[in-house]
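Structure first, sequence second, as always.
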């Protein structure tokens, strides 16, 4: 059965599984059915907007690679997408990147207002943890909450976001950043936090959803492989995001382009140029794939995803 499943081509697997993610997101919003209408509307607007759903897909593919099922990992997949959607709403706010277009639609604060956008973000972030607590047994829920909180918090995504802002030239509210090891290493660290941490959490939650009930939890070797894959995947993903800002088109990416340079953001294309950035991204994909070797055929889809991720145009 496993072989037959793996023989399905990646595109059709992704289409089919994305549809299940959309349904999962829709049903997880039932938990806030009694919330104030405008807040619900803003949460739905941003969460259900047409994103690529890469993080939930990683949760599900990781769970499958660890012997679990899509159904069993769906709450974890939805939780990670909620944290991601919150991070996008806040990232777009005037005090941060000040963007007006997201996923091909007006950003949340443009469509509603700033206060509603801030609160919709807060509500999606907290809902993520409610979903985990609601759907998993205490040990698995606690482990998933810990991973997700760590990756989204001050040492992860939020920490990376403040460093990203601090790296902008000419910001008057610059937080102090020490750069003892040069700008490339600084940039690698910013990416690891602001983007990499959530990818790593996605993969780890997949492992917990699949093997959380085993005595002692998932095998440590799984985490070693998934963490290394996530590190490389996350770096390559953000390099590609930065390249799309330089070379992409808003009609395809669904967000404004050519904004990073004008804001003076620290990016790979800005530091080493587009072609060296592309070379680095494909080298990182190779490293991501080799990190999965110990997992064998079960991780083939995760391995194949790296190429699609760097070749994307949105
Ligand atoms: C965009 O993430 C934000 C970054 C971390 C660079 P995605 O490119 O995955 O955005 P969606 O979810 O498809 O909209
Ligand atoms: C955002 O990075 C990372 C987040 C944690 C949301 P960017 O600021 O480069 O993402 P886009 O380009 O606005 O999607
Ligand atoms: Mg940003
Ligand atoms: Mg941004
Ligand atoms: Mg960007």
């Amino acid at each position: 059965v496993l072989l037959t499943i793996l023989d399905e081509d990646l595109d059709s697997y992704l289409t089919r599984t994305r549809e299940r993610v959309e349904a999962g997101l829709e049903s997880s919003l039932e938990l806030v059915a009694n919330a104030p209408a405008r807040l619900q509307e803003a949460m739905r607007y941003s969460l259900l907007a047409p994103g690529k759903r890469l993080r939930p897909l990683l949760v599900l593919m990781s769970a499958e690679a660890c012997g679990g099922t899509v159904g069993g990992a769906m709450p974890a997949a939805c939780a990670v997408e909620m944290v991601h959607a919150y991070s996008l709403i806040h990232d777009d706010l005037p005090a941060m990147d000040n963007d007006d277009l997201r996923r091909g639609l007006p950003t949340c604060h443009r469509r509603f207002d700033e206060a509603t956008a801030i609160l919709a973000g807060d509500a999606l972030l907290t809902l993520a943890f409610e979903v985990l607590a609601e759907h998993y047994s205490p040990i698995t829920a606690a482990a998933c909450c810990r991973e997700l909180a760590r990756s989204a918090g001050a040492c992860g995504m939020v920490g990376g976001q403040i460093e990203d802002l601090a790296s902008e030239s000419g910001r008057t509210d610059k937080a102090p950043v020490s750069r003892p090891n040069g700008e490339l290493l600084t940039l690698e660290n910013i990416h690891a936090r602001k983007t990499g941490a959530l990818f790593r959490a996605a993969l780890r939650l997949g492992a917990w959803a699949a093997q959380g009930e085993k005595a002692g939890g998932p095998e440590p070797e799984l985490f070693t492989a998934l963490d290394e894959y996530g590190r490389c995947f996350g770096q390559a993903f953000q390099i590609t995001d930065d390249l799309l800002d330089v070379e992409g088109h808003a009609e395809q990416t669904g967000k404004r382009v050519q904004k990073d340079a004008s804001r003076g953001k620290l990016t790979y294309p800005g530091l080493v140029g587009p072609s060296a950035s592309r070379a680095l991204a494909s080298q990182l994909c190779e490293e991501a794939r080799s990190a999965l070797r110990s997992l064998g055929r079960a991780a083939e889809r995760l391995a194949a995803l790296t190429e699609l991720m760097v070749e994307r145009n949105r």
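Margin note: The chain has a mean pLDDT of 94.
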